[in-house]
């Protein structure tokens, strides 16, 4: 018997000599599911459908825990799969417990008929054991909260976290006491129904006061808050916690596919690096040497370009190079590094330390250390202008908003999800449709006369909108202006989630696009600082970090 | 959207953060102006019931904004008969959001809500109203009442609103079953809801008045059923906005005097209507984005009969006035928006047969997981029964979340397909007649 929800009365399976299996599948793709269920229902529901369509399946026990699961149940039942659906009340009041008790009793009857077996109360009771599968966490810990997450991701978080992890996500909170011996079936199931409904509530329950216990623990040092794509329950709680809690909190969104691992890794690593720096091993650093010049390099391996910066021990930029990232990250990094060396007239062995950053940071074998681009951008931007409090980094593939404190430490950051809107890629796509070069895209918008709105939030749809505007004979200048505004609105909306404030600095290749820059300034109602070389901010930050030696 | 509405929306939107009171004043002034226009200078081609509906719906929304102390914010499925019995006026979030859209301002409120962390995948009806509340533009009501049905958004939105406004809220947990036990469970909660209203108003709940309201509701439902009989063979001019107005009368105003008058006018208009002729007859599933240019241009057309949206016939049953709470519980559970996809498909099938629909447009409103998740099953069942279905992905409330060009093409192609089918049937009949003459 497979189940997905913590409220599912899965111990019943033991009463029929069946095993209970927690179904939490990731999907490589949704090829089969997409044929029978709309792609805008929650990703986890689609993952269940995808998994069940492609595997031999045990009976599935579901509850009416959310709209998407209800529909996944409909779809699977229409595929002749054996699905038991229990009507789950929204509260733990007396009447609700009785209603759920009867649901469970009916489930026992249905299962009994389906299997032609009788229900064994003793075996049922033995399914409740004292052994807690979760490792016991004492002392400071990080809590994973919010919606369910894949076992692989949870394992990754456990492995990488500097502190123990408590799984307080919706399915991680399944805890039931042992039943008292004796009593009739009716009495036992009445108790069982109450025990199930009285667990720490998930967000679909109407009374969620008990959830406060999850965040009012003095040992709680940080929260990784998971939301699932197209699940609406949890973003609400995140916003609230973010506003009131003083501890670091990171929001991640997962879509139950095995894709996007790189971006997720960056977010988590940056969270562990920055937000939890006070509880990590103290990273004591000293400025290296004085006297003779020594040199340090930073390499930022981005999706579009690879940038290298060489600085001396007085933090003067000696040289830099920007080259397109080819198919092999390591080779591009070597080329960028060699180009920077050539410009500086230095030899490799004169470089004391190299720090790499960007998506390809861990693929560069000659690195001394790799650090996320969040930390490096913060370092670089603060070095260039210490008044900066918010960095808007719009790169080829993603967009990040990084908030700094007055000492240049990262206070908070947000990144766009797996969507091209508000990134350099979006502008490239639009330029292709308009048959303009990126330079032309940068300047055309300033000559606009008519307000044109690109309303779609999706890049693919926005591209077809642009094609429609061309068909309507709209002026290119007006369309480009509309595109600039669309990018600006996406970027600023992302930033507002992070409560950004001036002074602002824009980095990344898109900072060179004057149209987008002025649209962002208009949205913010404030001037934005753009460094002379906005592409190399991350590499500069990496080089600056290379001047600091970390004591083990 | 006209330039005036666009400018008006911008003005409302520009003020929501710096001067929310000004945004509210603008909205109230705008609705008052449109109310006057509807009452005294309405479009000539509207039928009496349509003119009346536009005025009453406008009044309902204005009331929530100007007299919040005597208003409750509810969801569309909440049994408002309980509120009518205590003279509390309901304002429902779906209706209020459609009016924010009508004022060209919904996107500003949606932006506000999204910036506060509400997910982009959330229902835009709910998101717009959350934005309007959290930005402090719309005033807080006396209290909140909602059902957990028909979607998860009800739990999230009303909890958020109650916390933000700091007003008492009562949630009716609607079980997903129509067994006797489920009816009893719900009946018990509706009785508790009445006690909650007593507490809120400091007045004794008037059960006799509730019975009167239920009697009036039965009369209204009778009139509406008679209307549906007329509709099955007549052409009764309809437009997307009027069909959306009808939701007020089939839901939150049902049982009120205004609703009874509406259904009287509706039936009279139906009796005066002509025969359907050869018009294409369309049944619409879920809400209609009545503000969308392409949809208005295609559907508000004399060549077609927009029959109804399924939500306007979701729970119209005779109620036993001697057991008012039990009857209301039965009605809630009868609703075809509750339960499985197959249940909704069966209801659509029944409606399509009864109203002689040529085709069904199934509107996949962004964020409505239940509707989205059912679309494949519903289409399969209806097409198996010979009813063409168009699945139309869109957004009922957010102008920025649609692709006008694509939707126009789909809708137009579907209508052309149905016309082609009808012509083919006519040709077949003509050719059969000719061959029989030979």
How do the helices and strands line up, and which of them pair or pack?
The complex is a heterodimer of chains A (552) and B (438).
Chain A: E1 2-3, E2 21-22, H1 43-54, E3 60-63, H2 67-78, E4 83-86, H3 94-115, H4 121-126, E5 141-146, H5 151-160, E6 165-169, H6 185-197, H7 212-215, E7 220-228, H8 233-244, E8 249-254, H9 261-275, E9 285-287, E10 295-301, E11 305-312, E12 317-324, H10 329-344, E13 351-357, E14 369-370, H11 373-384, E15 390-394, E16 399-404, E17 410-415, H12 424-434, H13 438-444, H14 459-471, H15 476-497, E18 504-507, H16 514-524, E19 528-529, H17 537-546, E20 548-550
Parallel strand pairs in A: 1-2, 1-3, 3-4, 5-6, 5-7, 7-8, 10-13, 13-14, 15-18, 18-19
Antiparallel strand pairs in A: 9-20, 10-11, 11-12, 15-16, 16-17
Helix pairs in contact in A: 1-2, 3-6, 11-17, 12-14, 12-15, 15-16
Chain B: H1 3-15, H2 20-40, H3 48-66, E1 71-74, H4 81-84, E2 89-92, H5 93-102, H6 106-115, H7 124-134, E3 143-147, H8 153-165, E4 169-172, H9 180-201, H10 207-231, E5 234-235, H11 240-250, H12 257-271, E6 274-275, E7 280-285, H13 293-299, E8 304-309, H14 324-334, H15 341-354, E9 359-365, H16 369-384, E10 389-394, H17 404-437
Parallel strand pairs in B: 1-2, 1-3, 3-4, 7-8, 7-9, 9-10
Antiparallel strand pairs in B: 5-6
């Amino acid at each position: 018997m497979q189940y997905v929800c913590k409220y599912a009365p899965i111990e019943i399976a033991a009463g029929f000599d069946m095993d209970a299996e927690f179904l939490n599948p990731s999907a490589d793709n949704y090829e089969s599911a997409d044929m029978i269920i709309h792609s805008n229902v929650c990703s986890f529901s689609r993952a269940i459908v995808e998994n069940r369509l492609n595997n031999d399946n045990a009976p599935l026990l579901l509850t009416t825990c959310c709209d998407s699961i209800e529909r996944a149940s409909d779809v699977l039942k229409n595929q002749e799969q054996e699905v038991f659906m229990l009507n789950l009340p929204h509260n733990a009041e007396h009447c609700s417990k009785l209603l759920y008790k009867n649901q469970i009793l009916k489930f026992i009857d249905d299962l009994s008929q389906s299997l032609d077996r009788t229900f064994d109360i003793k075996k049922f009771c033995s399914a409740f054991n004292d052994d807690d599968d979760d490792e016991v966490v004492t002392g400071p810990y990080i809590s994973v909260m919010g919606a369910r997450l894949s076992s692989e991701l949870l394992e990754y978080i456990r492995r990488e976290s500097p502190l123990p992890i408590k799984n307080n996500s919706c399915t991680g909170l399944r805890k039931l006491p042992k039943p008292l011996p004796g009593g009739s079936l009716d009495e036992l199931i009445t108790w069982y129904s109450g025990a199930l409904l009285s667990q720490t509530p998930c967000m679909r329950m109407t009374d969620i006061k008990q959830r406060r216990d999850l965040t009012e623990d003095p040992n709680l040092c940080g929260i990784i808050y998971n939301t699932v794509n197209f699940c609406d329950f949890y973003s609400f709680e995140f916003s609230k916690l973010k506003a009131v809690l003083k501890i670091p909190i990171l929001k991640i969104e997962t879509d139950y596919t095995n894709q996007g691992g790189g971006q997720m890794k960056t977010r988590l690593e940056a969270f562990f690096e920055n937000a939890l720096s006070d509880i990590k091993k103290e990273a004591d650093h000293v400025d290296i040497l004085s006297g003779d010049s020594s040199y340090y390099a930073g390499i930022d391996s981005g999706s579009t370009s690879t940038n290298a910066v060489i600085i001396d021990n007085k933090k003067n930029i000696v040289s830099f190079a920007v080259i397109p990232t080819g198919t092999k990250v390591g080779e591009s990094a070597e080329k960028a590094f060699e180009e920077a060396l050539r410009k500086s007239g230095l030899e490799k062995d004169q470089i004391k330390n190299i720090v790499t950053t960007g998506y390809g940071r861990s693929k560069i074998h000659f690195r001394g250390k790799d650090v996320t681009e969040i930390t490096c951008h913060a370092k670089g931007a603060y070095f260039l202008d210490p008044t900066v409090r918010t960095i808007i980094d719009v790169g080829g593939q993603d967009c990040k908003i990084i908030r700094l404190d007055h000492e240049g430490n990262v206070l908070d950051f947000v990144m766009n999800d797996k969507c091209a809107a508000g990134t350099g890629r979006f502008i490239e796509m639009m330029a292709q449709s308009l048959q303009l070069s990126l330079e032309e895209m940068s300047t055309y918008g300033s000559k606009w006369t008519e307000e044109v709105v690109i309303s779609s939030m999706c890049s693919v749809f926005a591209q077809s909108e642009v094609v429609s505007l061309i068909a309507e004979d709209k002026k290119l200048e007006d369309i480009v202006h509309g595109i600039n505004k669309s990018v600006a609105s996406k970027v600023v909306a992302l930033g507002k989630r992070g409560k950004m404030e001036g002074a602002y600095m824009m980095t990344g290749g898109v900072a060179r696009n004057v149209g987008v820059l002025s649209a962002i300034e208009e949205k913010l109602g404030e001037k934005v600082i753009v460094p002379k070389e906005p592409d190399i901010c991350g590499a500069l930050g990496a080089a600056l970090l290379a001047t600091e030696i970390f004591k083990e | 959207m006209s330039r005036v509405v666009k400018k008006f929306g911008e003005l409302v939107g520009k003020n929501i953060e710096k001067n929310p009171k000004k945004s509210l004043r603008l909205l109230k002034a705008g609705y008052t102006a449109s109310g006057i226009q509807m009452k005294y200078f309405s479009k000539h081609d509207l039928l009496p019931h349509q003119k009346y509906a536009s005025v009453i719906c406008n009044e309902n929304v204005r009331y929530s904004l100007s007299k919040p102390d005597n208003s409750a914010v509810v969801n569309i499925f909440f049994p408002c008969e309980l509120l009518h019995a205590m003279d509390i006026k309901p304002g429902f979030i779906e209706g209020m959001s459609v009016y924010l859209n009508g004022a060209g301002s919904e996107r500003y409120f949606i932006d506000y809500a999204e910036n506060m962390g509400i997910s982009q995948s959330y229902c835009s009806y709910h998101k717009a109203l959350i934005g309007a509340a959290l930005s402090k533009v719309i005033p807080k009501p006396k209290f909140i009442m909602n059902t957990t049905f028909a979607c998860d958004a009800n739990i999230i939105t009303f909890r958020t609103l109650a916390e933000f406004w700091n007003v008492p809220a009562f949630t009716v947990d609607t079980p997903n079953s129509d067994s006797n036990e489920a009816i009893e469970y719900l009946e018990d909660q509706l009785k508790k809801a009445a006690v909650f209203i007593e507490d809120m108003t400091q007045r004794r709940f008037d059960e006799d008045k509730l019975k009167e309201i239920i009697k009036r509701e039965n009369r209204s439902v009778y009139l509406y059923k008679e209307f549906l009989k007329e509709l099955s063979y007549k052409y009764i001019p309809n437009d997307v906005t009027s069909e959306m107005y009808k939701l007020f009368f089939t839901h939150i105003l049902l049982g009120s005097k205004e609703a009874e008058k509406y259904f009287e006018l509706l039936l009279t208009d139906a009796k005066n209507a002509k025969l359907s002729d050869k018009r294409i007859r369309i049944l619409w599933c879920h809400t209609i984005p009545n503000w969308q240019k392409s949809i208005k241009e295609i559907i508000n057309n004399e060549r077609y009969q927009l029959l109804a949206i399924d939500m306007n016939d979701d729970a119209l049953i005779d109620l036993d006035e001697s057991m008012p709470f039990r009857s209301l519980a039965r009605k809630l559970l009868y609703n075809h928006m509750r339960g499985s996809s197959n249940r909704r498909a069966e209801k659509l099938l029944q409606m399509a047969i009864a109203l002689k629909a040529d085709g069904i447009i199934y509107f996949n409103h962004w964020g409505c997981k239940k509707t989205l998740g059912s679309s494949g099953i519903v289409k399969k069942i209806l097409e198996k029964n010979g009813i063409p279905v168009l699945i139309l992905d869109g957004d009922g409330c957010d102008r920025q979340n649609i692709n006008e060009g694509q939707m126009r093409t789909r809708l137009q192609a579907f209508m052309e397909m149905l016309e082609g089918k009808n012509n083919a049937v006519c040709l077949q009949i003509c050719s059969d007649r000719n061959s029989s003459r030979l």
